[in-house]
């Protein structure tokens, strides 16, 4: 569970008076509250709150999610996908190892986005002999650095230097290579995720040994009734064995839980019915988008992947993180809570947390009705905590009616709240 630091958050009840002149100084500090109290600054000119209200934030999130789910995304034919690859690795100057690195990183990022390390640690990556298999080898390396425990099944190794180098990189990390004959028929007991990186959009014909048996192994895995008792299947770009444009023609192919499309989804992705569809790569330049009329969603922030298609339904009651933190004993903390706060605040700043001074401020009006909002900490000393507000805000009115308030700092990455 997160760590807590509790301090009194009461202040002397002091009315919030209007400024004494039309041209006041920017900020007025109220009389100092008692020790361990709560101080704040009041500005005469109205200021917007740091963050939108919870209602506004939720509305914005819902709008963004709905827009992403409803967005029309271009799906490529096999020929267009091949042509785009030729353009990228021809006049546009990309090399195959560059694209493979970006693709593999995208796959690893998408996996980490959905399948949390605390619950899905052991990852089996089954790699084919071509570029799709190379994407899987790169993904294995990144997953290792993300903290996962990857295992690689690579039965038909390609002798080209690029692939040999990828194998060497994995061997230097002591990532195990598992022969096909050593794989259990039921993968559920030994692996938490299985990544299908056998065949991509350029594959033709019928899979030959040993990939035909490996595909059937994943088919058997994907038809297990209770998905909670089997490892999810993640397919890279194309579920192996599917027709690139028509999908699972026979109806007896792999049914992955996640599909990570690369560059742009292929036509078969329209037949994908799993809960998680991501687009990865983030390397399509404007000339390609313009020439092929590609409609692709924007990537969020610095992420290498973006969710597309329907938003999966979520069982809220099942959302739970397992917190693993060192023990905190009373004799390990400082007698003065403000000294302890400064120590922990400095740790949060050093850790590079985004806005470690963001805090939830809860006030209560004279009727006993509480309200909360996010503000920024502007100072702290033995007298209390300082933030900015204005005379017309709800929090200012609340504090003029009821001097009791509470602050909450939530530092998720450190499993700590104060």
Structural class: alpha/beta
Number of DSSP helical runs: 9
Q: What percentage of the residues does DSSP assign to strands (E)?
A: 15-25%
CATH architecture of the largest domain: 3-Layer(aba) Sandwich
Which stretches are poorly predicted, pLDDT < 50 over at least 5 residues? 6-70
Number of domains: 2
Overall outline: elongated
Give the helices and strands as they follow along the chain. Answer: EEHHHEHEHEHEEEHEHEEEEEHEEE
Helix content: 25-40%
> Mean pLDDT, nearest integer?
83
Keywords: Isomerase, Metal-binding, NAD, NADP, Nucleotide-binding, Potassium
GO molecular function, one term: nucleotide binding
Catalytic activity: (6R)-NADPHX = (6S)-NADPHX; (6R)-NADHX = (6S)-NADHX
EC number: 5.1.99.6
Describe this structure in words.
The structure is a single chain. By secondary structure, this protein is of the alpha/beta class. It folds into two domains: 78-312, Rossmann fold (3-Layer(aba) Sandwich), CATH 3.40.50.10260; 330-417, Pnp Oxidase, Chain A, CATH 2.30.110.10. It is 28% helix and 17% strand. It contains nine helices and 17 strands. It has helices at 54-70, 78-88, 96-114, 131-146, 161-172, 211-222, 286-292, 337-350, 394-401; strands spanning 27-29, 41-43, 122-127, 149-153, 193-197, 233-236, 258-262, 276-280, 305-308, 358-364, 370-376, 379-381, 384-386, 388-390, 405-408, 410-411, 416-417. The protein has a seven-stranded mixed β-sheet, sandwiched between helices. The protein has a three-stranded mixed β-sheet with strand order 1-2-14, with no helix packed on it. It has a three-stranded antiparallel β-sheet with strand order 11-10-15, with helices on one face. Strand 3 (122-127), helix 4 (131-146) and strand 4 (149-153) form a beta-alpha-beta unit. Helix 3 (96-114) packs across helix 4. The longest helix is centred in the first third of the chain and has 19 residues, at 96-114. Residues 6-70 have low confidence and may be disordered.
């Amino acid at each position: 569970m997160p760590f807590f630091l509790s301090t009194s958050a009461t202040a002397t009840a002091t009315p919030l008076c209007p400024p004494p002149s039309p041209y006041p100084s920017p900020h007025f500090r109220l009389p100092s509250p008692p020790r361990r109290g709560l101080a704040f600054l009041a500005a005469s000119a109205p200021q917007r709150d740091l963050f939108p209200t919870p209602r506004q934030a939720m509305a914005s999130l819902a709008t963004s999610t709905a827009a992403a789910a409803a967005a029309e995304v271009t799906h490529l034919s096999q020929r267009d996908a091949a042509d785009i690859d030729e353009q990228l690795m021809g006049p546009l100057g990309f090399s195959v190892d560059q694209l493979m690195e970006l693709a593999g990183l995208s796959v690893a990022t998408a996996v980490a986005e959905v399948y949390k390390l605390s619950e899905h640690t052991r990852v089996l990556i089954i790699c084919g002999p071509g570029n799709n298999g190379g994407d899987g080898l790169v993904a294995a390396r990144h997953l290792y650095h993300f903290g996962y425990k990857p295992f690689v099944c690579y039965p038909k190794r390609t002798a080209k230097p690029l692939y040999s180098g990828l194998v060497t990189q994995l061997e230097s990390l002591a990532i195990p290579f598992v022969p096909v004959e050593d794989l259990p028929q039921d993968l559920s007991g030994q692996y938490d995720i299985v990544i299908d990186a056998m065949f991509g959009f350029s594959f033709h014909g019928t899979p030959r040994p040993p990939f035909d048996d490996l595909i059937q192994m994943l088919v058997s895995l994907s038809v297990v009734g209770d998905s909670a008792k089997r490892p999810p299947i993640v397919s890279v770009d194309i579920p192996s064995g599917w027709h690139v444009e028509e999908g699972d023609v026979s109806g007896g192919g792999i049914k992955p839980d996640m599909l990570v499309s690369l560059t742009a989804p292929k036509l078969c992705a329209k037949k994908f019915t799993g809960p998680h569809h991501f687009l990865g790569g983030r390397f399509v330049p404007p000339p390609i988008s313009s020439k092929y009329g590609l409609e692709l969603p924007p990537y969020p922030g610095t992420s290498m992947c973006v969710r597309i298609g329907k938003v999966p339904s979520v069982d809220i009651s099942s959302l739970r993180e397992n917190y693993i933190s060192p023990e905190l004993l009373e004799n390990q903390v400082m007698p003065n809570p403000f000294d302890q706060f400064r120590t922990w605040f400095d740790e949060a700043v050093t850790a590079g947390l985004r806005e470690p001074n963001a805090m939830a401020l809860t006030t209560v009006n004279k009727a006993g009705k509480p309200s909360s909002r996010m503000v920024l900490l502007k100072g702290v000393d033995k007298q209390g905590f300082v933030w900015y507000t204005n005379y017309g805000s709800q929090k200012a009115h609340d504090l003029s009616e009821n001097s009791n308030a509470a602050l909450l700092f939530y530092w998720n990455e450190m499993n700590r709240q104060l």
